Amino acid sequence: MGQGLKGAAHTYAQFSDLVFGPLPANSDGIPRMPTLIGNYGDHAFQVYMDDHAASATDFESMFTFLHKQYFPRVAFGPVYLLGHKIMVFVDDLELLGFQGSASGLRPSIKHREKIQLCYDPTLQSCNTACLNMYTRLDLACISVPTS
To answer: Looking at the structure, do residues 138 and 85 belong to the same domain, yes or no?
Structure first.
């Protein structure tokens, strides 16, 4: 998505809803299709701006989701995928400043280190790093000197 475009985020969010959200039945006999966005027990899918994230309980569930649901919608979109940004069938994933794995979701190491290394709460860089990370979680961020 182009940077600095007015309304681009809203337009792309609407586009993502149209492509991955529910599709109504049409007059050619194609049935209504439910939304892909959400948690369905054996797999889950979420869109954040121009990033797509999916998880599954096992390989077969992920393969079925990608083959039968995700890739047909990508072709319908059309959504253009960049090969160097695609990661499939991985045990853990770092996305939006967080790391997700079978053990759960936590702040990524590189972002956590930025916060832990901030000793002076008056430094703008410390407060910016803290706020950038915790506003994603809607948590309060308090910088406290450690010495």
So the answer is: no
- The domain in which residue 56 lies consists of 8-89
Per-residue exposure over 2-32, b if at least 16 CB sit within 10 Å of its own CB, e if not:
eeeeeeeeeebeeebeebbeebeeeeeeeee
Q: Could you give the number of structural domains in the chain?
A: 2
Q: What CA–CA distance (Å, rounded) separates 36 from 26?
A: 18
Q: Is 55 within a domain?
A: yes
Q: Which tens digit of pLDDT belongs to each residue from 62-121? A: 899 999 999 999 998 888 888 887 888 888 777 777 787 778 777 777 766 666 666 555
Structural domain includes residue 2:
no
- Tens-digit pLDDT profile for residues 24-71: 888 888 888 899 999 998 888 988 877 888 888 888 998 999 999 999
Q: What is the pTM of this model?
A: 0.63
Domain assignment of residue 117, yes or no: yes
